[in-house]
Amino acid sequence: MMKFPEVNNQLFINGEWVDGSEDAVAVYNPSTGEKIADIAQGGTKETAEAIAYAEGAFAGWAATDPKERARILHKIGSLIEENLDRLALIMTLEQGKPLSQSKVEVQTSADSFHWNAEEARRLYGRAIPAPSEHHFLTVYQPLGVVGAITPWNFPSNMIARKIAPALAAGCTVVIKPASATPFSALALAELFVEAGLPKGVANVVMGKSSDIGKELTTNDTVKKITFTGSTEVGQLLNEQSASTLKKVSMELGGHAPFIVFDDADLDQAATSLVTAKFRNNGQVCVSPNRIYVQKSVKKEFTEKLLEAMKTVEVGLGIEDKTVGPLINEEAREHVEAQLKDATDKGATILHGGKRPEDEKFANGPFIEPTVIDGITKDMDIYYVETFGPVIPLIEFETDDEVAEAANDSEFGLASYFFSKNIARISRFSSALEYGMVGVNTMAISQAETPFGGVKHSGFGRENGTEGIHEYVYAKSVCIHD
Ligand code: NAP
Hints:
Layout: E1 11-13, E2 16-18, E3 22-28, E4 35-41, H1 44-63, H2 66-82, H3 84-95, H4 99-120, E5 126-128, E6 134-142, E7 145-149, H5 157-169, E8 172-176, H6 182-195, E9 202-204, H7 209-218, E10 222-228, H8 231-242, E11 247-251, E12 256-260, H9 266-277, E13 288-294, H10 295-309, H11 329-344, E14 348-351, E15 370-373, H12 380-383, E16 390-396, H13 399-407, E17 411-412, E18 414-418, H14 422-431, E19 436-439, E20 454-455, E21 458-459, E22 472-480
Parallel strand pairs: 7-8, 7-10, 8-9, 10-11, 12-13, 12-18, 13-16, 15-16, 18-19
Antiparallel strand pairs: 1-2, 3-4, 5-6, 6-22, 11-21, 14-15, 17-20
Helix pairs in contact: 1-7, 2-4, 2-5, 2-6, 3-4, 3-6, 4-5, 7-8, 9-10
Bound molecules: NADP nicotinamide-adenine-dinucleotide phosphate (NAP).
């Protein structure tokens, strides 16, 4: 195996690296099945300690000049950029995505720190017109200790876009990364130290997720829970957080519609779909999952799509092809079950659909990038998130029909459509019940724009000017001379 870079494997609490009270567990490379390293494990006790230290650090950090907070966050962003190759290699080895995609994610993490560094200095309140001798002010105050729980699919950026605005606002944090990908989180923590982040301001705990989650959600000292992951776990954490009335943000599952209208640039639509769908092997909450194509252009679009599929290659993460492995065997079985269910009910596989045969893929959960046609509502894939490299094609005829179909989902995270007709663009951007709409583009997530969903995709926004507001409360100050 490619040598795994040196990264601390302990919990990071109050600026110290500590062993946990539980037995260490192994982390594996999903491309090869090889063990990468052991990782220390804590639990309720260490989480409570980290929360107490974060609380201890809160007053000092909140009182730190915003300009100084911004300087440290910029420093973290710059260190991430300086360490980009190393951080990307760590990510590819523990998560499996192709190396160049890891580099893009690491750069995106740096962007989150730089963007939010500036937001620290722009958290403007308001002066409200008031009667004579009175002054009405609104100021934004940091909430306090934040508990952040993140998934494995973007093991760096899902942390960055929570931590950067939280720290910018003056909050302190306890982070619980996903078990499959702790090293990306710990490698960031090493940079926090190098950037001079004061002790206790950011802490990282690993261990049994239900124990850590329970402590974070029920400890009264924690004032905010920010979670990215499955809808099921999000609902549980939301319920648990109710006991201590925390402010909560939930970035949950998605099942994005992707609509190709008859006036679309079909080349643009086909290449955009292939690029976006196979990013991170389809293990993306905003991945297009239902591809609606208008009947009159369906044949031509499908031909272009299949042509574009010729550029899609499977490889070990380190080989930097289009797609790597899925995260684990369970994920592969889920994709295969969706394909079997669909073909049993009449769908046709036009491309891929099997495990790749090359011997080098034998030890990882690889599956060929797939195009499947003839998807109907009675198939699991129509309503259930795939989280894998599958393009399911659905035919439609009228605008009304596709508007209704696109919104027929419990999720409401990302949506996309391709059209050059301004009236359609205006009408559909408003009709889609989704937190984000990409029109003739799949690039809907950047530091500058608010990211988040509606319905069972959750609530709260990350990035944009909205992001930092998840970590503050508005205080109204009414003054009489
Ligand atoms: P997951 O199983 O919900 O896990 C996410 C995180 O929650 C991990 O850190 C996990 O820890 C932790 N967790 C699991 N059970 C928990 C519990 N009982 N209490 C506290 N924490 C618990 O989701 P996933 O499989 O990693 O990620 C895939 C899902 O995330 C998909 O549905 C995807 O759509 C969604 N996602 C959403 C967004 C968004 O922005 N909306 C972005 C990316 C992904 P362990 O790893 O230790 O189990």
